[in-house]
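Methods — Computational structure assignment.
A single polypeptide chain was analysed. Its primary sequence is given first, followed by the predicted tertiary structure written as C-alpha cells.
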Amino acid sequence: FWNFFDERTWYPLGRVVGGTIYPGLTLTATWLYKVLQNVFKLHPVNVKDVCVMIGPLFSSFTAISTYLMVRQVRSRGAGLLAASFVATIPSYISRSVAGSYDNEAVAIFALTFTFYLYLKSIKTGSMFWGVCASLSYFYMVSSWGGYTFIINLIPIHALALLIINKFSTNLYTGYSMFIINGTVLAMVLPVIGFNAVETSEHFSGFFVLALMNGVALVKYLKRTLTEAAYNKALRLFVTASIGVMGIVSLAVITFAMTSPTLRWSGRSLSLLDPTYASKYIPIIASVSEHQAPSWSSFINDLRLGIILMGSGIISCFRPLSEGSLFLVIWGVLSVYFSAVMVRLMLVLAPAACCLAGIALSDVLEVLCKSYHITAPAPEETVTSPSKKKRKGRRNSRSESGLGAIPRPLALLGISGTIFVLSYHLFHCSFLGGEGYSSPSIILQSRTRDGGVYIFDDYREGYSWLRENTDYEAKVASWWDYGYQTTAMADRTVLVDNNTWNNTHIATVGRAMASPEEKAWVQFRKLDVDYVFVIFGGLVGYSSDDINKFLWMVRIGGGVYGDIKERDYIGEGYYRIDEKASPTMLNTLMYKLSYYRFAETVGRDGMDRVRNTKFGNPDITLNYFQEVFTSKHWMIRIYKVLDSPTLEQA
C-alpha cells in the first residue's frame, strides 16, 4: 500500500497513493474485512460490503464515545441524551449513511474518542490514558486532514486551564503524554512526515508544553524552597526564561518567514482569513464544501442541537470543571470554523450534541424533581404536632429541590420535551432519508403527482465509457469527476479529487477555457482520447460545468498568464447569452456544452439553469466529435480527433 503507484490517475504523472492520501479509512476497511474473513469466518462477505457498512458501524462507535465523554463531564443522563442527538443529527448522518465511504465516516469517531481519552487522562493523571489518547489521535491523523483541529483545540484548553490557575500534575501528565507521543506517531505517516513539527498549525502544542513545564518548575520550587530562596530562584528563572524564549521565538519566526505563508497551510489560512482562498488559492475556494454555509444550514443540519447549544454552554459554567471548560471551548471554536467552511459543520455537530445533551439533561432534572415533589396540603386552623412534623418534612423536601416548579407545569414541561424530541427525530429521519441517503451519481426529483423521477445520466455516461472505449483510453474532465471516472468507468484520468497537483488541474482548466483548436493541441500533448462535460441547461441541473467554469478560469489563470478572468466577463458579469464575451463564446467548454443544443430547444430556446437564451446556436466542432449524450443531456462525451475535420453546420 505505502509504495503503490497508480499510473491510471493523474496521467502522465501518476500518483504515489501511500504518500498522497490519509490511509486510515482504507486500512480500517481492510482490517475489518480480514477479521470478518479469518476470525468470524464470514466468507460470503466481500470487501465492498465492508466499505458500504463502515459508515453506520462507526456512527454507532461515535454515539458510544460521545456518551462516555459527556458522562465523564456531567452525568449519565446527559451522556445518553448527547449520544441520542449525535446518532440522529443530519449533519453527521450525511457522512455515516450506508455507502458513504468517506474519511469523515471514521474521523468523527476518532475525534470524539480522542477528546474522551484526553479528558480522562487529565482527570485521572494516568500516563496510560494519556498514551491511549495519543494513539486515538494517531488514528485521527491517519484518517482526515481535520486532525489539525484537535492539535490546536487541546493546547488551547490546556492554556485556558493555566490562565485560570487550574494547573495540576494530572493536567501535566495527560497533556505531555498526548503531545509528545501524538506528534511522534503522526510523523510516521508519509502524508504528514515532518509537517508535524515544521508547520505553524502544530506550534501551539509545543508552546503550551514549554509554558506548562515552566509553571510546573515554578510550583515545584515554591513547594520545596524557603520564601527567600524561592524569590531568588524565581528571579533567576524568569530572567533565564525570557532569554531562552526570546532566542527560541526568534528562531521560530525566522524559520516561518522562509515560507510565503509563514508555514501555514492554505486551508488553515482560509479559516483564519475567510477571504484568503478566493484571493490566492482558487482551487480551495472552488470546492462547494469550503464555502460559508447559510443560516438555514445550521437549523436543517443541527436542528435541536444548535438551539440548545447556547443553554448548554451556560450549564457548563455551573460548575466549571476541566471537562465542561473543554466543551465550551470546543463549541465556541467549532461555531466559528463551521461558519467559515460548511464542511466543518461535521466538527460542530458532536460539540452541539454534547452541549445540547447537558442543557436538556438539566431541564429534565428540574422538571422530574419538581414532578416528584408532593404538593403541600391546604392550611388548617388547628394543626396537630404530627401534622406539623410532616409539613416540616414536606417543606424541607420542597426547599431542597432547586428551582422547583408546580407539579402541573412540570408535567406539561415533560410532555412538551417528549413532543419536541419526537419532532426532532422525525425531522432528522426525513432529512437523512430525503437529502443524504441518495447515491451522489443518481439524482431524483418529485413529479407533480408526488412520484419520484430518476436522473441516471451519470451512470449511463460512465457505463458508455467502460463498454465502448479502449481500456487504455485517457479521459479528460474537470477534477470533480475523477474518482467517479476511475471507479465506475475504469479509465485513466488526468486529474481527480485528490487535488495534490494544482498545476495539472490548472492545465485542464486552461484547456477548457481555450479556443477549440488550442485546446485540441493541449489535449493531444497529454494523449487524451475523450473529453466529457457536465451540462444541466436542458433539465435545470445547476451543478454543471458552465456554472463551475469561472473557477476553471481562475485556477488556470493562477498558473498560466494567458488566461485572464476579465476576458470571459460580458458586460459586467459572467453570462452565456448573446451579450457574452467573444472569448467565452469561443471556449471549448461553451462549445462542448451547447453543441447541437439548438436542435433540441430551438434557436430561441432557454438554458433552464441560467434562465436565459444561449448566445451561439450555430456551434460547429472541427477537432472533437460527439460520441455520446445522455438522456437528459447531463453528461456529454466527445472524442479527440487525430486530425481536424470540417463539420457542416
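Note: Confidence is low (pLDDT under 50) at residues 391-401.
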